[in-house]
């Protein structure tokens, strides 16, 4: 019984240490790498960017943090044996030190299709301790990402009750705006900050519309709008009080143009 208790205590201690090392690696990545490597962008959006739009959607010249983690851990050119995590960590550490000291795109483990869009990095020296922390960060990246995304994906806080919305729209005599957005959409954030947050814009929306913001990475568009959605965020759908589509407006808009859109759909 004592041996079993000691074993469980050891496992708990080991797990806590791994988490602590991942957190330290995360901090190190944010300090040394995040200025170049963008934050998480969904693979759906990345595939559209590289394979459908020739990088014109995101204009990436360097892989995002999740692209790096995927290349190291899960791609066809992944580093090390997944069944031997200790040796794998050593191999990842050596690769990071070697590649950062001489960042030759010919030795990159990134997808060959996207390499043509990347620029060469400047050489960078990291210590053995730093390479160890970065390796642990990449090795724990996927699990940590899944753990943190479970709640918003499952809870679906923006999954709307269409029947109640239509009842409210008809009762108040308002049209409906569905704002298709994404957490990784730069122009969505820009428009929310520079247009949608303005008091006169908010007043116009509140007076005449029911406004629904839908993160298309997590939640399906309501009212059967998926068939009209071309994959661009932001996109604004204007619907009648009965949920019938009037107009679709893809892209971001300046204040005066957006106010005109609100006016012309009444």
TrEMBL record:
A molecular-function term among this protein's GO annotations? metal ion binding
Quick check: keyword NAD in the entry? Answer: no
Cytochrome c domain span: 20-142
Question: PROSITE patterns this protein is in?
Answer: CYTC
**Highest taxon of source:** Bacteria
Q: Which Gene3D superfamilies match?
A: Glutaredoxin
Q: Which UniProt keywords apply?
A: Heme, Iron, Metal-binding
User: Under what name is this protein listed?
Assistant: Thioredoxin family protein
Taxonomic lineage of this organism?
A: Bacteria, Pseudomonadati, Campylobacterota, Epsilonproteobacteria, Campylobacterales
């Amino acid at each position: 019984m004592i041996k079993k208790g000691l074993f469980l205590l050891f496992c708990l201690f080991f797990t806590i240490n791994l988490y602590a090392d991942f957190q330290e690696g995360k901090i190190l990545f944010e300090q040394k790498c995040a200025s170049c490597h963008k934050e998480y962008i969904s693979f759906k959006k990345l595939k559209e960017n590289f394979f459908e739009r020739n990088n014109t959607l995101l204009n990436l010249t360097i892989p995002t943090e999740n692209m790096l983690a995927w290349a190291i851990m899960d791609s066809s050119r992944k580093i090390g044996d997944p069944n031997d995590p200790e040796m794998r960590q050593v191999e990842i550490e050596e690769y990071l030190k070697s590649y950062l000291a001489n960042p030759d795109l010919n030795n990159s483990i990134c997808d060959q299709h996207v390499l043509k869009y990347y620029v060469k990095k400047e050489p960078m020296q990291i210590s053995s301790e730093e390479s160890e922390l970065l390796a642990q960060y990449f090795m724990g990246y996927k699990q940590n990402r899944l753990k943190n995304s479970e709640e918003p994906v499952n809870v679906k806080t923006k999954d709307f009750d269409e029947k109640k919305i239509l009842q409210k729209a008809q009762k108040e005599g308002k049209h409906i705006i569905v704002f298709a957005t994404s957490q990784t959409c730069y122009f969505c954030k820009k428009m929310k900050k520079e247009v949608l947050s303005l008091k006169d814009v908010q007043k116009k929306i509140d007076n005449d519309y029911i406004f629904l913001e839908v993160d298309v990475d997590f939640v399906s568009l309501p009212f059967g709008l998926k068939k009209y959605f071309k994959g661009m965020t932001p996109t604004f759908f204007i619907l009648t009080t009965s949920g019938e589509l009037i107009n679709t407006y893809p892209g971001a808009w300046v204040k005066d143009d957006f106010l005109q859109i609100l006016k012309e759909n009444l």
